[in-house]
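Appendix B. Extra example for self-study. Work through it before the problem class; the solution is given directly after the inputs so you can check yourself.
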Amino acid sequence: MSATSPSILQALSPSDTEDVAQRRALLAEIDASCRGTLMLFFGAALVWLLIGTVFALIASWKMHSPDFLADIPWLTFGRVRPAHLNAVVFGFASEAAIAVTLWLICRLCRAPLMHGWVVNIAGVFWNIGVAIGIGGILAGHSTAIEWLEIPGYATPLLFVSYALIAIWGIITFRFRREKHLYVSQWYLLAALFWFPWLYSAAQILLIMEPVRGVVQATVNWWFAHNVLGLWFTPIGIGAIYYFIPKVLGIPVYKYSLSVIGFWSLALFYNWNGMHHLVGGPLPAWLITVSIVASVMMTIPVVTVGLNHHFTMWGSFHKLKDSPVLRFMVFGGMSYTVTSLHGVLLALRSVSEVTHFTHSTIAHAHQGMYAFFTMVMFGAIYYIVPRIIQVEWPSARLISIHFWASAIGIMLYIVPLIIGGTLQGVAMINPDVPFLDPNKYSVVTMTVPYLRVRSVSGFIILVGHLAFATSFIWIVARWIKAARQHQPTPIVSNV
Amino acid sequence: MNYGPIIFLGVFLTIASSWIGLVLIPQVQFGRQQEVKIEETGEIYPTVRPGLAQQGMEIYKANGCIYCHSQQVRPEGYGADIARNWGQRRTVSRDYLHDNPVMLGTMRTGPDLSNIGVRQTSVLWHLQHLYNPQITSKGSIMPPFRFLFEKRKAGDKPSPDALALPKEFAPEPGSEIVPKPEARALVQYLLSLKANAPLPEAR
Amino acid sequence: MTVVWILFVSSVIVLPAAALLALRWAVRHGEFKNLQKTALSIFDEEEPVGRMTDRFPGPQRSSKSSQP
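Solution. Structure tokens for the complete assembly:
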């Protein structure tokens, strides 16, 4: 099968029929309209990814060797860790998400991105906002509210840029030429709408006009969990819903399931956040509601999982040929595993053990990296050659990236979930001392696992460097090609 | 499902529901909570932190202590918080009335600090521990916060604010370690962390 | 205080009511019919069903050796 599949560039060669030529021209026009904007976002995302990875390594190393870089105030663990989180969440992941969302919306609406320069300006300001924010955290201006550490003087910039981008996405949607609304579009539009609501509500209620007392904690976790659930997750799922069928050339297994999956996610996910506060100083009903909603999450997870995996069923040998498919399938499988694991973690009896331990951290990376980041990598590998019409220079670099990321993140998650759970078992047993250098104690038993995590971090870094090399190389080729040729003739001005 | 507005409506309704449920209702329930008079002692609880402790909280925020320390005690029988002497009772919403931000925390790489001001009252202990946790807690993975201290040339006799340090941690002869105001403020904040007033709702 | 409660109670009624009305509208207008057709909307003559649209760059590597 795949032997007959044309390379991307072959696919752009002259066509046989009028209709196909027209469609091809439209596709090329759409891709060209996104070109500058997307390359800006992808490039910036990559820079944040590398910065975030370096912060991550420093933080991870400090956890088992606390004297490492200990005398530099702006590199103390409690600043590097939030700097890492904000660099990868608001720098890398959000920018990749925005770019992928815009491209998918354009493609699925069969409409070009109009006046892309507005989004470019928003993108530049977004990056300035993230940079100021992370600088502020390192300088000691963190708000100390998890996932919202960026100091108040940088957030309005972020919000305004984001609003512009979301409005642009929705405007493009209004000008669509395709009457069908594909499932990915539901997720993407919902995400564009949910994020500003979450972000502005959290900013106002926690930073500008803070509410009093423990209500802050509920707002905090309503926001923080929903950033995952209502911003990254829908974009990740929406991307998988497009890319797996598209790459394979096989329609989604059961489209009707996707309706159930979408609405159950919309309904249940946003009630989940309080499971981060089980046992905390909050009324029992609030936490119970969240635990129930967390358990209900099995519905969207299972339906989406069925759809993704059954679409893939029987095509697993194609993973060998397609880099995009590898990343997407890895991401899709991780989504199923992470979410079911998350349901478990929300249960009161499990939370008693795992809450407050490294297993939560492992779970967060399972979601943000093994699922979301891998999906974004796959999407970038698919989109970039199409918009700049240059092929990826090296298959080997892509392979290195995939394997380093996949092995690295597994080596991160599995030991840390085990180590974190054992840490929790030790912590709820008052006979185990909290710290004793000569005995099995809560603090010392975690150290080997933390070391393994640092090793995994280096492997992941190798993957990211391979990715960066690919990206710089393809951009160099693109610039060279642009110098040599006139603009490609296929790009018509419809 | 090809009609945009209906999807938008659904998407709006779902998030509005959780916003009402998880943000608005808790605010209605707790937004007006007040201090109470403790019957046993006749004191008002909780009190606003004095200024120095409040400054210390800024240091706590800035240096991310929250990523390793929680400030909440789970109820008896759920976890071993009380058995580990992290508190005599669970913490309840009223304990956090004057905290801004409320730093409940999600991680216990180190012990819970809700009652550190009850458990560890020695300023010297805290300063030594912050200067280098290995002094007081060998094998700790808490980072040293030496940048909250400064090294000075010692005069003929050690100045009164110099930090007493065991030999193997002391600076070379002729110099001494003096806590910066930040370190002192941070310790005052830690000493102010007490969630032990016998509140009726926490029994 | 009472204002908040009135708001809350009315929203508890208004939100589900709006959701139900929307659902009824959607069902009547055939929003849930012929769903499987939309699954095909991402394909066209240019990139039809049955054709893979991604593979590793460069000369065909594994596919030639392993495919019949």
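Self-check: Confidence is low (pLDDT under 50) at residues 1-16, 489-494 of chain A. If your reasoning did not lead you there, revisit section 3.
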